[in-house]
Structure formats: C-alpha cells, structure tokens
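Hi V.,

Quick status before I head out on leave. The structure for the redesign project is tokenized and pasted below; the design run finished overnight.
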C-alpha cells in the first residue's frame, strides 16, 4: 500500500464528498476505489470490512474506518483542523452538525420523485437563506475574522465552503444577501489546497446525475 488514505465509495459525491473535501483541504492525496455493482458491496460486507455494513469506508493509518462523522473527526484532529481546545472543538462540532443538516437535504435531492423536486428545491433554498446561512453570516460579522473558529482554518470552514457551493449549484444567487459569506467564499476559493481541489481534474465529484442515482440504487438495493 502506498500509505495514502484509500477511500471506498461510489464514483460520485454522496457521503464521501465531505471526506474528500477535508482531505483535499488538508493537502492530503488519497486513492479511491469505486463500487459499481451490488456484488462488490456484498463482498465487503461478507469479508467483515464494513463494521455497520455501510460505506463510506476509509482506510487510514492501519484502520478501516466507517461512519462519516467518525472519519472526519479523525482527519480533522490528525491534520490540526479541529481547534486548539475543547471549547473550540465544541463550536466546530456545532457548526459542522448544522451544515450537515442542510447538506442532508442536498444529498437526498437527486432521489426525489419528479413531482417533489420543485418543492424540495424550495425547501433547500428556504432553509439555506432563513436558517443556516444567517448563522454563519452573523458569526463572521461579530468576530470580524477570516475563519469561523479561533481565527484559524478548521473543519467547519471546509464544510461551510462545500455547502455554499452545493447550494449555489441549485440557487445561484443564494449569497446575494450575505456579504460576509461572499467574502468568505472568495477567501476560501483562493486558499492553495482548496483552489487546487476546485480545478478540473481534481478528485472533486460533479453534481449527481441520472447515472449516479441509478448506480446508487443498483449497488445498495435490498
């Protein structure tokens, strides 16, 4: 093995994308294995590789890690993106959990029935504008710093940047009422590791299309 973390998931965003973002932001190169058939997935379960019979699976530092939250906590701690003390870590956790709630809606959107798509899109827009983005606008305005916690780049900043771009794909003008977040997005986009991740040809995955949805349903069918 090369020593690089090895990520096993489908060739698409899903629950692995925030992990890809975090590793990329930390400047860590990784390898990927893509599941394309139910047989591949069933073999991982049969071999006892997946603790809870779920992916994402990340092999790192001799561990086979599952559960997105646990994987990301480990990566954030390992690469110094998890605050300097317990209080900062608690703030990061709160922000990350909030962003994850918004991202869950975006994650499930491609699987919406056609007649529910418009309603679900409206829900994403409404939650982003009225519940989630105002929190981060206020935090950045109140402390006047570049980053969300402790004036230092953290896991929370990475998650927020991913969420901003994901919502903008669906609601292009979503940041029009959030000047602090506009500045934040520009600064994040210019950080060398993130700038690299946003370039064509990086491991960042495109928005889910019909083929991705079809593959998910095929691999995970009961």
């Amino acid at each position: 093995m090369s020593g690089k973390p090895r990520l096993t998931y489908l060739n698409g965003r899903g629950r692995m994308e925030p992990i890809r973002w975090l590793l990329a932001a930390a400047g860590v190169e990784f390898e990927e294995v893509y599941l394309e058939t139910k047989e591949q997935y069933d073999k991982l379960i049969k071999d006892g590789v997946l603790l809870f019979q779920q992916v994402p699976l990340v092999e790192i530092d001799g561990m086979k890690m599952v559960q997105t939250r646990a994987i990301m906590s480990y990566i954030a701690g390992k690469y110094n993106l998890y605050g300097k003390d317990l209080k900062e870590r608690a703030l990061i956790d709160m922000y990350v959990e909030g962003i994850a709630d918004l991202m869950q809606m975006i994650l499930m959107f491609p699987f919406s029935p056609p007649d529910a798509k418009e309603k679900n899109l409206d829900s994403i827009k409404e939650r982003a504008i009225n519940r989630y983005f105002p929190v981060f606008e206020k935090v950045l305005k109140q402390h006047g710093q570049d980053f969300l916690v402790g004036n230092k780049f953290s896991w929370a900043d990475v998650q927020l940047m991913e969420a901003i771009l994901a919502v903008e794909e669906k609601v292009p003008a979503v940041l029009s009422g959030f000047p602090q977040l506009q500045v934040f997005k520009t600064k994040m986009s210019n950080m060398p590791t993130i700038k690299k991740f946003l370039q064509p040809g990086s491991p960042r995955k495109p928005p889910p299309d019909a083929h991705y949805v079809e593959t998910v349903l095929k691999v995970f069918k009961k």
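Above is the designed sequence. Residues 7 and 32 are 5 Å apart (CA to CA).

G. will cover questions while I'm gone.

Best,
W.
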